[in-house]
Automatic annotation (TrEMBL), chain B:
Membrane topology: Multi-pass membrane protein
Residue ranges of every copy of the Cytochrome c assembly protein domain listed in the record: 147-358
UniProt name for this protein: C-type cytochrome biogenesis protein CcsB
Keyword Membrane attached: yes
Protein species of origin: Streptomyces carpinensis
Length: 599, 368
C-alpha cells in the first residue's frame, strides 16, 4: 500500500485547504452546474497605450469609458454587489418601522415633530417620515432590480444553452467526486455503458455516451425555478409600483338610509397616487339600508363584538340595476378595481330642533364618534340656517352631544357606556347659540363644537349655569325664554364607515407572488446533479466500472441515488467474486468523509 | 333551559377549561425542568469519555488516509437471510471542507450518559404532550385558535418548536444534541409567558376572524420554530468551526470546550444542517408573508402598507435571502454566511417580541 499513500496525500492537499472550489479541480465536468455569475471583474484602465494626437486621445478615452462602464456593469450584476444591496435594503427598511410615517399615521408624525424640535427637521431632510418613498430607499431597490435584470438576462441565455447542449463528459478521475462506487465485472464495457444509459434514462436523466463513459444530468428545474423566482420578483415590484401610482383611498361615513356616489366630492377624506386622475374612479353608488352589530352578552368576553354587517343596495355605472349585498369586515364589496370595506361604525341619534314658534328647523340623525369599546360617543349637533331666535333674528344653534347606548343609571357616578348595544340609551346635551363660525372660511370639524369661540354663547338655565340636560328617547329639552326646543327622537340610527380603495395591479402582484413561491420551491428543493458511469477494460481483462456523482450543493440524497444506480447497473454487470479486494482500479483511494459512516 | 342559562353554562365551562389549560402549562414546565436536568446529566456523564476524533482527524491525516479501504462490493445481510449485493458508495465532502467525523452526541459514548439522554427525550415527549394539551385546552376555552395575544403565541410557539425537534428525532436525524438548548429556551419562553405575558382569555376583534389569518399565523409560528432550530445549529457551527480552526492551526482549546465540542457533529455537518433547515422554510416564510398580505388586503384594504410588523417580516425575509445568497457567493460562505443567518433570526425575534412591545402599529390589537 506504500504506492497508494503518496497518491492519496497529493490528492488530499487541496481538500484540506479552504480556497479550492470544487468546480476548479473538476474542470468542465463541474462547470455551470449553476448559472450563477463567476467573479470576473476586470480592473480599471483598459486603454493600454495612448497614441499621440487627438485621434489617439479619442480612441483611448473611448476605450476607457467603455471599459469603465463594463466594469461598473459587471460589478453591479455580481453576486457580491447583489448581496450588498439586499443587505442595504433590509437595513434601509428599519427606520421606517421605528419612526412614524406620513403614509400610515400622519397624526403621529405631527406629534413627533412637535416633541422633537431639533431632530424633526433633520429627519425631514433625510425623508425619514416617508422612508419607503424616499430617494435613498428608492435608489437601493432600483439598483437592486437593475442588478437583478442584468443578472437574469445572461443567466437565462446560458441556461437555454445548457438545455440545448449535452451534459459534459466525465472528468478524468471520478474518485474525487463526492459520491463514488466501483467494482470489477466480467461484462463487456459496452454492455455496462448500455445498461447504465438505460438505467439513467429510466430515471429521467438526460444522458448520453461520450468516450468510455456515460454522462448524465438531472434537476434542471432547479435553475428554471431560480430564474422564475427572480423574474417573479420583478413582476411583483412593477405591480406594486403601478398600484402605488394609481392607488386611491377614500373614507365615507354613512348613516342608515343615506347613500353614496363614487365621486371625489362625496368623500370625507381622500388620498391618491401621483398618476391618479378623477376619471379613474369606478362609477358606482350605494345606499346603506341597515347596519347590524351583535355583541357577546355574557362571560369574560362580555361586550366583545360578534358580528358587524352592513346591508347595502348598490348599482354600477350611471343607471345600473340595484343589487343587494351584505358587507362585512374582511368581506368587502368589489366593483371592478374598487373595493368597499366596512371599517368602523357608531350611533347616530335622531334629533328634532324647533324654534320658538314650533317650526322644525332640523330633523336629522346626527352621527357621533365612539370614544371607547362600549360606544360612549361624542359629537355636535349644528343648526346652520333656518332658525330664528325669540326676537325673530337669524341665529345659529349648536349642541354638544354625549351619547351612551347603555347608561349605568342615574347616581351611578359615571356617564360612560356599560355595554355597546342599545340597552338604555341616554343623550346628554349642552346648548349654545350665536355664530358657528362657518363663514370664517376655516374648515370645520363637524363632530366638534368650538365652545371657546366668543361668538358662540351658552344658553343658561334658571340658576345661571350652562343649560345641560340628559334625555331619554322621546324626551325634549326646552331652550330658555322661548328660544325653542330639541327632542331626542326614539329612532336611533347607526352609521357605518366605509373605505373605498382602488389599487390596480393587485392581480399581477398576486400572480407574481405565487410564481415566486413556485420558483423558490423548485430552486431550493430540487437538486441539480451530474452522474457519470465509466466502464473500461482493465489490464487483466476484467471491466472496471466506476459510478460517480456531483451535486451543486452536497446533499445526502446524492450518495443514495448513486447507490441505487450502481445497484441497477450491478444487476446487469455483477461483480467478480474472486477479485482481490485490496487491488484497486485506481491509485486514488478517497478517505471516507464525514457522513460516510452513518447509513 | 333558557338561552341566558345556556350561555352562562358555556362561559362557566370556558373558565373551567382556561383553568385546566393553566394547570397543564405549569405541569409541562415541571416536566421540562426534569428533562432539562436529564439532558444535563447526559452531558455530565458524557464528559467522562475522552473523545478526540476531531483532533486526530485534523492532525494525523496521513495515517487515516492510509488505513482507509477503497470501495468494494459489500454483501449486506438483512436478518441473516436475504442477501443483497450492491456496490458500496464512498462519500467525501466537497473540496474545500475538512474531513472531520461527527461527534458521538452529548453522551459521548458513555452508556450511563446515553441512558440519561434517552430519559431526557422521553421526558421531553411527555412535557410536549402535556403542553400540547394546555394549548388545546386554551383554544377550546377561548373558542378560537390559540394565538390572540403574546401569552398564547408563546405557549404555541414553544410547543411547535419542541414538536419540530421531536419530529426530527422521529425521522432518525442526529439532533439529540439540540435537546439541552431547546429545553432551556422553552423554559425561558414559558417562564416569560406565565409571569409577564399572561392574559386572561379574550376575544378577537372581527378583523381577526379570517381563515387567511389562521393560515398566516400558524405558518408564521411554524417557520419561527424551525428557524429557531436552524439558528441554534448555526451558533454551534460557529463554535465548532473556531474549535476546528484552532486545532488545525496547532492551538490547544480549553478542556471544557474540548469536552463539549468534541461531542457535537462536525462543523460541516452543523453548517449543512442549518442550511437545509433555513432553505427548507424559506419558501414557507415567503408564503407566510404573502398570506398576511392577502389577509391585510381583505381586512384593511391594502395588501402592503409598511406597517411595522409587515416591515419586519420583510426585513427578516430579505435577511434570509441574503444568507442564501451569501452561501453561493465567493468569499461569503461559511462563517460570514452564518453571521447573516443569526442576524436574520434576530430579525424574526425582534418582529415577534420587539415590535409588539416597543413599536405597536396595526398589529397590536390584542394588547401585548
Ligand atoms: C430582490 C432581491 C433578491 C432576492 C430576494 C433573491 C433571492 C434568491 C434566493 C432565495 C436564491 C436561492 C439561493 C439558493 O439557491 O440557495 C437566489 C439565488 C440566486 N440569486 Fe437571487 N435574489 C435577489 C436578487 C438577486 C440579484 C439582484 C441577483 C443578481 C446578481 C441575484 C442572483 C442570484 C443568483 C445567481 C442565484 C443562484 C445562486 C445559485 O445558483 O447558487 N439575486 N436568490
Amino acid at each position: 500500500m506504500s504506492k497508494t499513500t503518496t497518491g492519496t496525500t497529493a490528492d488530499e492537499t487541496p481538500a484540506a485547504g479552504h480556497s479550492a472550489a470544487g468546480e476548479d479541480d473538476l474542470g468542465a465536468a463541474g462547470s455551470q452546474l449553476s448559472t450563477a455569475p463567476t467573479e470576473t471583474a476586470v480592473p480599471g484602465s483598459f486603454g493600454g497605450n495612448r497614441a499621440p494626437g487627438l485621434m489617439g486621445w479619442l480612441a483611448w478615452t473611448g476605450r476607457e469609458i467603455v471599459g469603465w462602464v463594463r466594469w461598473f456593469w459587471r460589478q453591479l450584476t455580481s453576486m457580491r454587489v447583489a448581496l450588498l444591496l439586499l443587505f442595504l435594503l433590509s437595513l434601509g427598511a428599519i427606520p421606517g418601522s421605528l419612526i412614524p410615517q406620513n403614509g400610515s399615521d400622519a397624526m403621529k408624525v405631527e406629534t413627533f415633530k412637535q416633541t422633537h424640535r431639533t431632530l424633526a427637521p433633520i429627519y425631514d431632510k433625510l425623508g425619514l417620515f416617508h422612508v419607503y418613498s424616499s430617494v435613498w430607499f428608492s435608489a437601493i431597490y432600483i439598483l437592486l432590480f437593475v442588478s437583478l435584470i442584468g443578472c437574469i438576462v445572461p443567466r437565462t441565455w446560458q441556461f437555454v444553452g445548457q438545455l440545448r447542449s449535452r451534459p459534459p463528459g466525465a472528468p478524468r478521475r471520478l474518485t474525487r467526486l463526492p459520491a463514488y462506487a466501483t467494482w470489477r465485472t466480467a461484462a463487456a464495457p459496452e454492455e455496462v455503458r448500455e445498461a447504465a444509459l438505460k438505467a439513467l434514462k429510466q430515471r429521467r436523466f438526460r444522458a448520453h455516451t461520450t468516450g468510455d463513459a456515460v454522462a448524465a444530468e438531472k434537476g434542471y428545474l432547479r435553475e428554471a425555478g431560480n430564474l422564475l423566482f427572480h423574474i417573479a420578483l420583478i413582476v411583483m415590484l412593477i405591480a406594486f409600483a403601478w398600484g402605488q401610482l394609481f392607488k386611491t383611498e377614500g373614507n365615507k361615513l354613512i348613516v342608515e338610509g343615506d347613500g353614496f356616489t363614487n365621486t371625489l366630492t362625496q368623500y370625507d377624506d381622500f388620498k391618491s397616487g401621483n398618476l391618479f386622475n378623477d376619471d379613474n374612479l369606478v362609477p358606482f353608488s350605494f345606499n346603506l339600508k341597515k347596519f347590524t352589530a351583535t355583541y357577546e352578552r355574557n362571560g369574560p368576553n362580555k361586550g366583545t363584538a360578534r358580528t358587524f354587517e352592513a346591508a347595502i343596495d348598490y348599482s354600477v355605472g350611471a343607471d345600473g340595476k340595484d343589487q343587494h349585498k351584505i358587507v362585512r369586515v374582511n368581506h368587502p364589496l368589489e366593483i371592478d378595481d374598487a373595493k368597499v370595506y366596512l371599517v368602523s361604525h357608531g350611533y347616530a341619534p335622531t334629533v328634532t330642533v324647533r324654534d320658538g314658534k314650533g317650526n322644525v328647523v332640523l330633523h336629522q340623525a346626527v352621527p357621533l364618534l365612539p370614544l371607547d369599546a362600549n360606544e360612549t360617543s361624542q359629537g355636535a349637533i349644528k343648526v346652520f340656517d333656518g332658525y330664528k331666535n325669540a326676537q325673530g333674528k337669524d341665529e345659529q344653534l349648536g349642541f354638544s352631544a354625549f351619547f351612551v347606548p347603555t347608561f349605568a343609571g342615574a347616581g351611578k357616578g359615571t356617564m360612560f357606556s356599560q355595554f355597546p348595544a342599545l340597552d338604555f340609551p341616554v343623550l346628554a346635551l349642552g346648548a349654545y347659540h350665536g355664530d358657528l363660525g362657518v363663514d370664517a372660511g376655516v374648515p370645520q370639524n363637524v363632530y366638534q363644537l368650538d365652545t371657546k369661540d366668543p361668538n358662540l354663547k351658552p344658553f343658561k338655565d334658571a340658576k345661571g349655569q350652562i343649560l345641560k340636560s340628559r334625555l331619554l328617547p322621546g324626551e325634549t329639552m326646552q331652550l330658555p325664554n322661548g328660544a325653542g326646543s330639541i327632542t331626542f327622537d326614539k329612532d336611533i340610527k347607526e352609521w357605518a364607515g366605509f373605505q373605498v380603495v382602488q389599487q390596480p395591479g393587485t392581480g399581477w402582484a398576486l400572480t407574481g407572488a405565487l410564481a415566486a413561491i413556485t420558483g423558490l420551491a423548485g430552486s431550493l428543493f430540487i437538486q441539480r446533479r451530474r452522474v457519470w458511469v465509466r466502464a473500461v477494460r482493465g489490464a487483466d481483462g476484467a471491466t472496471v466500472v466506476e459510478v460517480a456523482g456531483l451535486g451543486r450543493s452536497e446533499s445526502a440524497k446524492l450518495p443514495e441515488e448513486i447507490g441505487d444506480l450502481a445497484a441497477l447497473v450491478h444487476d446487469k454487470a455483477p461483480a467478480q467474486t474472486d477479485a482481490d479486494p485490496d487491488r484497486e482500479p485506481d491509485a486514488d483511494t478517497p478517505v471516507p468523509a464525514e457522513g460516510a459512516e452513518k447509513k | 333551559m333558557t338561552l341566558a342559562a345556556a350561555t352562562e353554562l358555556a362561559s362557566a365551562t370556558n373558565e373551567h377549561l382556561a383553568h385546566i389549560s393553566n394547570t397543564l402549562i405549569y405541569s409541562s414546565m415541571a416536566v421540562y425542568t426534569l428533562a432539562f436536568f436529564a439532558y444535563i446529566a447526559e452531558w455530565l456523564f458524557g464528559s467522562r469519555s475522552k473523545v478526540a476524533r476531531t483532533a486526530s482527524a485534523l492532525t494525523v491525516k496521513e495515517e487515516a488516509a492510509a488505513s482507509a479501504r477503497g470501495p468494494a462490493v459489500t454483501v449486506k445481510s438483512a436478518g441473516g437471510t436475504a442477501v443483497l449485493e450492491r456496490p458500496e458508495v464512498v462519500v467525501r465532502s466537497a473540496a474545500g471542507s475538512r474531513d472531520v467525523p461527527d461527534g458521538p452526541g452529548a453522551h459521548g459514548g458513555d452508556a450511563q450518559g446515553d441512558l440519561y439522554g434517552r430519559i431526557a427525550v422521553s421526558l421531553t415527549v411527555l412535557a410536549f404532550l402535556v403542553e400540547l394539551g394546555g394549548v388545546v385546552a386554551r383554544a377550546a376555552s377561548v373558542e378560537r385558535a390559540p394565538w390572540g395575544n403574546m401569552y398564547e403565541f408563546n405557549i404555541t410557539f414553544s410547543t411547535v418548536a419542541v414538536g419540530v425537534y421531536l419530529s426530527l428525532l422521529a425521522l432518525r436525524k442526529n439532533v439529540r444534541w439540540l435537546g439541552l438548548f431547546l429545553t432551556t429556551t422553552v423554559l425561558l419562553d414559558l417562564g416569560l409567558a406565565v409571569t409577564v405575558l399572561y392574559t386572561a382569555s379574550d376575544q378577537l376583534v372581527p378583523a381577526l376572524h379570517s381563515y387567511w389569518l389562521y393560515i398566516h399565523v400558524s405558518t408564521a409560528i411554524f417557520c419561527g420554530a424551525v428557524l429557531y432550530v436552524g439558528a441554534v445549529s448555526t451558533l454551534l457551527y460557529l463554535f465548532k468551526d473556531s474549535y476546528e480552526n484552532k486545532l488545525e492551526s496547532g492551538g490547544k482549546p480549553g478542556s471544557f470546550a474540548t469536552s463539549v465540542l468534541e461531542r457535537l457533529p462536525a462543523s460541516a455537518t452543523l453548517d449543512k444542517f442549518a442550511y437545509r433547515i433555513n432553505a427548507a422554510v424559506f419558501p414557507l416564510w415567503t408564503f407566510t408573508i404573502i398570506a398576511g398580505a392577502i389577509w391585510a388586503e381583505s381586512a384593511w384594504g391594502r395588501y402592503w402598507g409598511w406597517d411595522p410588523k409587515e416591515t419586519w417580516a420583510f426585513i427578516t425575509w430579505v435577511a434570509y435571502a441574503c444568507y442564501l445568497h451569501a452561501r453561493s457567493t465567493a468569499g461569503w460562505k461559511g462563517r460570514k454566511a452564518a453571521y447573516i443567518a443569526l442576524i436574520a433570526f434576530a430579525c424574526y425575534l425582534f418582529n415577534y417580541y420587539g415590535v409588539n412591545i416597543f413599536v405597536g402599529g396595526k398589529h397590536s390589537y390584542a394588547g401585548v
